[in-house]
Amino acid sequence: MVIPFIKMHGLGNDYVYVDCFRNPLPADPAALAVAVSDRHFGIGGDGLILVCPPSAVAQAQGADARMRMFNADGSESEMCGNGLRCVAKLVYDHGIAPKTRLVLETGRGLLPVDLELEGGKVARVRVEMGQPILQAALIPTILSGQPPLEVPVETPWGAVKLTCVSMGNPHAVAFVEKITDSMVHEVGKFLETCPAFPKRANIEFVEIVSRNRFVMRVWERGSGETLACGTGACAVAVAGILTNRLDSKCTGKLLGGELELEWPGEGHTVYMTGPATEIFSGIWPG
């Protein structure tokens, strides 16, 4: 069975999208994610995202669409901030729900998004990402603290201090003087699967530039280093505020571009604003 797809990216964090409003749900999304993500023998991407009709319960609560996200290794993830912005663009630009405020169903619940248009198409999306999850058992991590703040974790390259936050998926943030390739590709890879994180974790390495600006690179659970991670940038903002490094409004510079972030503090949602881009469409032979 052939599968129509759309290739999209948020700051270079690229996924293959399938419109499951108009096309059948793939029989094996995990296997499809592995196949299409291959950058030599497939379409190429950080994973697969299915844009589906919302569940009956979510639809009754006002949801316009549902996002299901699969990493490049086939594992299903709860949430993807860059992916969610692209889902919003697909839903609006392709006429599924042509309105500038949408509600999208995700693995971490219903998330409202506001669309900024240019020339009648979505250029940027502001997402209400929900409140950060700060209880260690719910992140989940076995590190101590509620949340764990700068807890040393031993690696073959020495101890790394981690601050842990969940944005619907687990993140561990390391504030460092200088980010290096080996730090991301070796230490990040090691920490993703270390015993401290029973469901693995996304690992962010961060340089603080000022109270309202940071630079980051991320090793993503199930995909390796990516050009951007929306939930990761949100987690960094929260971790930076909790450790008194960042103010409540800040900008994160990722390899693929910049995201605007805002978190008023505990009990409040995190806001993330950034671009969404459609690259091309095609047919996967199945």
- By helix and strand content, what is the structural category? alpha+beta
Number of domains: 2
CATH-level-4 superfamily name of the largest domain: Diaminopimelate Epimerase, Chain A, domain 1
Q: From the 3D structure, determine the CATH topology of the largest domain.
A: Diaminopimelate Epimerase, Chain A, domain 1
Q: What is the CATH architecture descriptor of the largest domain?
A: Roll
For the sheet with most strands, the description reads:
18 strands, mixed
Q: What's the N-to-C terminus distance?
A: 5 Å
The residue fraction in helices comes out at 10-25%
Please characterize this protein's 3D structure:
There is one protein chain. The model has no long low-confidence stretch (mean pLDDT 97). It contains five helices and 18 strands. It folds into two domains: 3-117 and 276-284, Diaminopimelate Epimerase, Chain A, domain 1, CATH 3.10.310.10; 136-268, Roll (Diaminopimelate Epimerase, Chain A, domain 1), CATH 3.10.310. It is of the alpha+beta class and 286 residues long. A hairpin with a 2-residue loop joins strand 1 (3-10) and strand 2 (13-19).
